[in-house]
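Form 12-C: Joint structure prediction
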Amino acid sequence: MAIKLGDIAPDFTAQTTQGEIKFHEWLGEGWGLLFSHPADFTPVCTTELGMTAKLKDDFAKRNVKVLALSVDDLESHKNWIPDINETQGTSVNFPIIADPEKKVATIYDMMHPNASSTMTVRSVFVIAPDKTVKLTLTYPAATGRNFQEILRVIDSLQLTAKHSVATPADWKQGEDCIVSPSIATEDIPAKFPKGHKVIKPYLRTTPQPNLD
Ligand code: BEZ
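Section 2 - Result
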């Protein structure tokens, strides 16, 4: 069954390129990004894993641990990593799950038989410190993901988890936010002292609250 937003991310134990991982224990108190790629030694996947490695500091500053997966085995992953490092000018610095028996891929519904009977699709799960799933994305094999978008969503998830705001279309760090509909307009000044605008009774904006 598909994993839905708000579900507890299923726990598992898996072999990875950095040793055995017990997922929940490995996540600890921080955020997690679990993502699948269709297969090792394929071009789009090579660029995606390279990009993820290059964004190490961006994930670290958001307290996000990254974990990749495909249904290839450990030896295949280990043989492929030097190609990623060489061609993408980086060094893979996160674990990749070897899931040849499709155990994790099955519990996370990463196999979409009408797309491929043998490879995982490009799934993305962002998991909060309480282990609930906050974001799911699914891309097909031929379309590489935009990892800046994944960072942007994480920024929004972390902001909206702590403040009574939502983020508008195409929002980026530093831009105005939408005051949550649950806040009465008369209560906005006390909650959002940086100011606010009432554009419509249901559309109120305020400067991003967690910035100086
Ligand atoms: C790729 O990563 O390039 C890819 C993987 C599987 C199918 C098609 C493309």
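Section 3 - Comments
The domain at 13-145 is CATH 3.40.30.10 (Glutaredoxin). The CA atoms of residues 50 and 89 lie 8 Å apart.
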